[in-house]
C-alpha cells in the first residue's frame, strides 16, 4: 500500500489519514459563490410579463432620461391604457423597460424596469393608489420602492389626465 509509511508516521502523532484529508479539504478550495437571487419576492410584476402582458408602447427614446424604453401593461389595464382612460382599474400593472442609451431595445442593454401597480382604494390616495417601484435588471433587485421619489413628474398635467401615465402615444 502506497500510504503505509505515511499512515505509520501519522499514527505516531495520533492522527489518521482521514483526519488530515478532511483538514485539507476544508482549507483547499473556497466554497462556490452564492448565485445571485433569481428575483426579489417583493417585485410588483411577474417575470413573464413579456408574454403575459400587452406591449402598449414599442421601442422609443425616453423623454425622461437618455435611454430607450418599451412599455407593457397587463390584461387588467391594457385596453384602458391604450384608450388614454382617465382611470385605470385596480390590479393594473405597468412595466417600463429601460435600456442603455445608444442601442435599440436589445436584451443585453436592459438596465432597469420602472413599474406601477394599481392597489386597492386607500393605498395612497394622493398617488391615485399607484405603487411605484424601480427594479434593476437582470437579477430583479429592487432599487426604489417609494412613491415620493417617483411621483413628481407623473403629476405633470399631461400625465394627470391619464391616471398618471406619461408615455406619449
Ligand atoms: C424625471 C421625471 C420622472 C421621474 C422622477 C419618474 N418618472 Fe416615470 N416616467 C416619466 C416620463 C416622462 C415617462 C414617459 C416615458 C419616458 O419618456 O420615459 C415615464 C413613464 C413611466 C412608466 C411607464 C408608464 C407611463 O406611460 O407613464 C412607468 C411605469 C414609470 N414611469 C414608473 C416610474 C417609477 C417607478 C419612478 C420612480 C422610480 C418614476 N417613474 C419616476 C417621468 C418620470
Structural write-up:
Helices cover 24% and strands 24% of the residues. By secondary structure, the chain is of the alpha+beta class. The protein folds into two domains: 33 residues, no CATH class; 112 residues, Chalcone isomerase (3-Layer(bba) Sandwich). Strands 1-2-3-4-5-6 form a six-stranded antiparallel sheet. A hairpin with a 4-residue loop joins strand 5 and strand 6. The protein is globular. It starts with a helix and ends in a 9-residue tail after the last helix. The N terminus is likely disordered. Heme C (HEC) binds next to strand 2, strand 3, strand 4, strand 5 and helix 5.
β-sheet strand percentage: 15-25%
Number of helices: 6
Number of domains: 2
Query: Which cofactors or ions or other ligands sit in this model?
Result: heme C
CATH architecture of the largest domain: 3-Layer(bba) Sandwich
Q: How many strand elements?
A: 6
Radius of gyration: 27 Å
Amino acid at each position: 500500500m502506497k500510504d503505509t509509511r505515511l499512515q505509520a508516521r501519522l499514527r505516531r502523532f495520533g492522527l489518521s489519514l482521514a483526519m488530515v484529508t478532511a483538514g485539507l479539504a476544508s482549507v483547499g478550495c473556497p466554497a462556490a459563490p452564492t448565485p445571485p437571487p433569481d428575483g426579489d419576492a417583493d417585485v410588483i410584476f411577474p417575470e413573464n410579463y413579456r408574454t403575459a402582458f400587452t406591449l402598449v408602447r414599442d421601442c422609443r427614446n425616453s423623454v425622461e432620461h437618455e435611454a430607450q424604453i418599451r412599455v407593457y401593461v397587463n390584461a387588467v389595464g391594457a385596453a384602458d391604457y391604450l384608450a388614454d382612460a382617465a382611470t385605470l382599474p385596480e390590479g393594473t400593472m405597468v412595466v417600463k423597460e429601460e435600456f442603455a442609451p445608444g442601442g435599440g431595445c436589445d436584451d443585453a442593454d436592459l438596465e432597469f424596469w420602472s413599474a406601477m401597480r394599481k392597489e386597492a382604494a386607500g393605498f395612497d390616495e394622493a398617488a391615485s393608489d399607484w405603487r411605484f417601484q424601480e427594479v434593476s435588471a437582470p437579477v430583479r433587485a429592487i432599487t426604489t420602492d417609494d412613491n415620493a421619489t417617483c411621483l413628481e413628474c407623473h403629476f405633470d398635467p399631461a400625465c394627470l389626465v391619464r391616471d398618471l401615465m406619461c408615455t406619449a402615444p
